[in-house]
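Field notebook, page 390. I keep forgetting to write these up properly, so this time I am using the form the group agreed on. The chain and the ligand, LQZAQKY5, are recorded exactly as supplied. Prediction of the bound pose follows.
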Amino acid sequence: MITVTQARALLLALTAPLGVEDVPLIRAAGRVLARPVTARRNQPPFAASSMDGYAMKRAEVERHAMFKVIGEAAAGHSFNGTVGPGQAVRIFTGAPVPDGADFVVIQEDITRTGDLITIANEPGEKDNIRAEGGDFSTGTTISPPLSLRAEDIALMAAMNIPTVPVARKPIVALISTGDELVMPGETPGPDQIIVSNTFGLKAMLETVGADVRIMPIARDTVTSLKTTFELASSADLIVTIGGASVGDHDLVAPVSAELGMERSFYKVAMRPGKPLMAGKLGRSAMVGLPGNPVSAMICAEIFIKPMIRAMLGQDTTQADLMTAPLTAPLAANGPREHYMRAQLDRNGIAAFDNQDSAMLSVLARADALLVRPANDPARAIGEPVAYLPL
Ligand SMILES: Nc1nc2c(c(=O)[nH]1)N[C@H]1C(S)=C(S)[C@@H](COP(=O)(O)OP(=O)(O)OC[C@H]3O[C@@H](n4cnc5c(N)ncnc54)[C@H](O)[C@@H]3O)O[C@H]1N2
Ligand code: MOO
């Protein structure tokens, strides 16, 4: 059996960055920037007042000085003239600072009678002017790859970038397999359960930028599974769930082999997730996840999320695991790397007693995966252990 690190490298080798598409700025949040974008203007485009007050010459600014107000500058309406000695222009936040002025005294420091103003309080040194291009200037570049957050969208809008080149979303087809499965909302027979993995995986993979499509459930027959594979054949990544193990009804390996899947590996030394398989099927990468619901979710967290990142052209360097002291002891681990469902609190981390890979209620309560190397010895309270936050 290969290690988790080897499996990760083989899975990444099945992927390549996808193409680039232009989307309107309004649709760009959450997408991954694929090419550099460049500001088309200076911001602010002129020296602008940062306060409501009066614009004048810095050399004349001192307490008790008097000025004549000769006009007004508001945001969107500049003052068309020059401020001369002894003159001031009423100015508002965001307005262009008029020619001849290089200081804005805030209105709280001014008293006004008709067109005459007096600086009533000590005005300080701050000129209350934002320099032209102080935020960004023509040619300022945002570089890819970058997962675009609301903050980036606001900046691109200010830069006057109405369309954004982003990485095409990887299309992921999710195929649940099994005669026992029905969709949420349907009435299951006495020997049936509700499909859960496709829904959990769709939610998970959409958060990292995939376009996830749930295929019809494949039944435990060769024909049904083949038909479903065909339906999924245009996807960038086909993910099957279940039918990966060694039982008589576990058809994913034989059927995908019959369809020409070039296998990359089968089985990984990890818990849960041992019967993971992967390869290339037509033009799609294919991953066969184990059916146990927690195994499928953890394998997707560890393996499929990085594949999506690779297809989006993002960095796939693994982030370092975090460390926390144990708040409950751990028995010795076996020969497989173990991703234990665990809970963090301010004192440290504890794995749940029940690590059955069918228990979604335990997974849902977990906020971390405590990662144990193969053959890790028993660990006592207080010892540091590695974990991955969920
Ligand atoms: N003799 C052996 N038996 C098993 C082994 C083994 O090595 N030798 N490995 C076990 C491990 S570990 C796992 S993990 C499972 C994986 O089996 P499959 O991938 O073949 O999954 P299924 O048998 O189809 O299903 C397992 C379990 O999960 C439920 N399931 C499947 N798909 C879904 C879904 N989409 N949503 C919700 N639940 C799902 C299914 O009903 C089964 O209960 O094999 C062990 N056996
Ligand atoms: O590999 Mo299984 O996923 O341990 O339950």
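OBSERVATIONS:
- The domain at 48-130 is CATH 2.170.190.11 (Molybdopterin biosynthesis moeA protein; domain 3).
- The first strand starts at residue 20 and ends at 24.
FOLLOW-UP: compare against the apo run.
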